[in-house]
Design brief:
With 307 residues, the chain is of the alpha/beta class. It has twelve helices and five strands.
Length: 307
């Protein structure tokens, strides 16, 4: 442990001289001289030159997996390019030889083709006439087929119409179950008209007479019925304000529902023609003025046969 005096005067090593230290310095100098002598006596060996740097030659020097793959890809690319160049040169050579080396048979074939073309141009003046005749024949055949198709469709419509039942009168329904049978048990293509009426109202009586007039023109496939509103237990409000009402069914489904028809015609004095026009406008009766003549004649013939 150092004392205050040692710190003020310095360490002993700073001012104390020893004979051992001088001997050690002497020995160190002798060792340095011996090493210098041996170094001078040993021959100088030159340092090996640095390895030459490999210049880039278009391929990698890496011998790992990535380098091998890259070299293989480059090889295949060069091989493909060389093959394409060879094929292009072959095509050029083939074209050149084919232009210069035409055989006699090919020349004769070319001459015959030219002669055929000339003959075709000579006959081209008559060609439009022939084409027009062919077109006319085709149109005539199509017109004949179209007429046949129309007649066939008309005949199908007539046969379907002839299968419908004929009524020709207004049917009075007297109960609710009878009303249901008249609607649900009828043919699916028959249109059923049911007039809900009140005997005490003038408009209801007028509509009943109009329906009787319609039965003469629409006897087949159209069923006209009347039903007293009191029979089906309708409400007093409907009996007072809802009649005359006309319910229209087809295939058991309600397809038309008209109430207070007196207000629709704006008076109690309307005719069968007014009712027919009203039902035609709403699509519940067909317009007989638009019926084709072929159907009218067939219907008349069918009516006379049934009589």
């Amino acid at each position: 442990m150092t004392t205050l005096d040692d710190r003020l005067l310095g360490e002993k090593t700073h001012y104390y001289c020893s004979s051992e230290d001088e001997d050690e310095r002497e020995r160190g100098k002798d060792d340095d001289e011996d090493e210098g002598a041996t170094a001078a006596a040993a021959p100088e060996v030159p340092e090996p030159p640095p390895p030459p740097s490999n210049a880039w030659r278009g391929m990698t020097t890496n011998t790992g997996p990535k380098g091998v793959i890259k070299d293989w890809q480059r090889f295949k690319q060069l091989e493909t390019e060389k093959r394409e160049e060879q094929e292009a040169e072959k095509l050029k050579l083939i074209q050149k030889l084919s232009l210069n080396c035409a055989s006699e048979s090919e020349k004769e074939k070319q001459k015959t083709e030219k002669e055929k073309k000339k003959r075709g141009w000579g006959r081209s003046k008559k060609k439009p006439v022939d084409e027009d005749e062919d077109i006319d024949k085709i149109l005539e055949e199509e017109d004949g087929f179209f007429d046949f198709y129309v007649k066939q469709r008309m005949q199908e419509m007539i046969s379907r119409y002839e299968c419908l039942p004929v009524f020709g009168e207004v049917l009075e329904l007297k109960s609710g179950p009878e009303f249901l049978r008249a609607v649900d048990d009828e043919h699916k293509d028959v249109t059923v008209f049911v007039h809900l009426y009140d005997p005490g109202k003038r408009a209801c009586a007028v509509l009943n007479n109009c329906l009787k007039g319609l039965t003469s023109n629409y006897s087949r496939g159209f069923k006209f019925c009347t039903l007293d509103v009191r029979v089906v237990n309708m409400t007093e409000i409907f009996q007072a304000q809802g009649v005359p009402a006309l319910l229209i069914y087809r295939g058991g489904n309600l397809v038309g529902n008209f109430v207070r028809l007196g207000d629709e015609f704006k008076s109690d004095h309307f005719s069968a023609a007014d009712v027919m026009k009203f039902l035609i406008e709403h699509g519940h009766l067909p317009d007989q003025s638009l019926t084709p003549k072929i159907i009218k004649s067939s219907l008349k013939k069918a009516g006379s046969d049934s009589d």
